Amino acid sequence: MGVTIQNVTGSTAMVIWPAMAICADSFYSIMYHPNRNNMLSSYSRKNFQKEERVPASRSSFVVENLTPLTTYILCVTCQSANPSSDQCRIFHTLEEDPASASNKKKDLALGIWLTSSILLLIIAGILLYGCLHIWYRKRRERVEGQNMTSDQDKGEAWTINKSHSPEQFNRQGRLVQSVEGKNAEGIQLATIIENPLTSKEPTMQTSKSQELVPMTVGPF
After folding, report:
1. What are the backbone angles phi and psi of residue 25, rounded to the nearest 5°?
2. CA-CA distance, 149 to 133, in Å (whole number)?
3. Which range is most confident: 41-50, 100-109, 182-191?
């Protein structure tokens, strides 16, 4: 099986293989991992760290997220079978591209910024909810306190009104009547005192008129 590796970079590599008739109704397995011995030996499927499954209609695949300056062994098999020597290849990744490294740093910074922004929004939402909850609770307590005060005032007023017995109301009524009676007697007494003064004035005028009339002496 003629497996070839092309377009190797610091983090990617393209693998190409010819179509196999036995995989027409199945899938291809691309297995790879770092090969530090730089030797191609027999490998079982369980020794590979990573495996990608590709539809049988394809004959190429781009392996990503490789480590720069690292030697890899890659095998292509059908239906996850154990690979043979003609199905495997060894390749070496290049040094990482500065542009790619810059893009990764930008992506990392963007991810950190987005995560921090989300956390800050969550914290701000929690603080806002707490402040609103405290404000609403204080407002409710203040309204309840005002209602309790008004209810106490009404209760005291009702108690005071209820404490006055009918006898006290009758006593107050008698006191008012006695005061009104005294006022009426005072008015009558004042009228009696004023009447003699007015009755003496005509008498005095009459006596004075009698003194002013001349007396005539008739002939004897």
Report:
1. -110, 20
2. 24
3. 100-109
Strand 27-34 vs strand 13-16: parallel, antiparallel, or unpaired?
Answer: unpaired
Share of the chain above pLDDT 90, in %: 25
pLDDT tens-digit profile of 27-86? 899 999 887 665 555 566 677 888 899 998 889 999 999 999 999 999 998 887 888 888
Q: What is the chain's length?
A: 220
> b/e map of 85-101 (b: 16 or more CB within 10 Å)?
eebbbebebeeeeeeee
99 alpha carbon, distance to own chain's centre: 44
Strands 60-63 and 27-34: unpaired
pLDDT at 119 over 90: yes
The three-state DSSP-derived secondary structure of the chain is: CCCEEECCCCCCEEEECCCCHHHCCCEEEEEEEECCCCCCCCCCHHHCCEEEEEECCCCEEEECCCCCCCEEEEEEEECCCCCCHHHEEEEECCCCCHHHHHHHHHHHHHHHHHHHHHHHHHHHHHHHHHHHHHHHHHHHHHHHHHHHHHHHHHHHHHHHHHHCCHHHHHHHHHHHHHHHHHHHHHHHHHHHHHHHHHHHHHHHHHHHHHHHCCCCCCCC
Evaluate whether 17 touches 30 at the Cβ level (below 8 Å).
Answer: no
Rounded to a whole number of angstroms, the CA Rg of the chain reads 61
First to last CA, the chain: 199
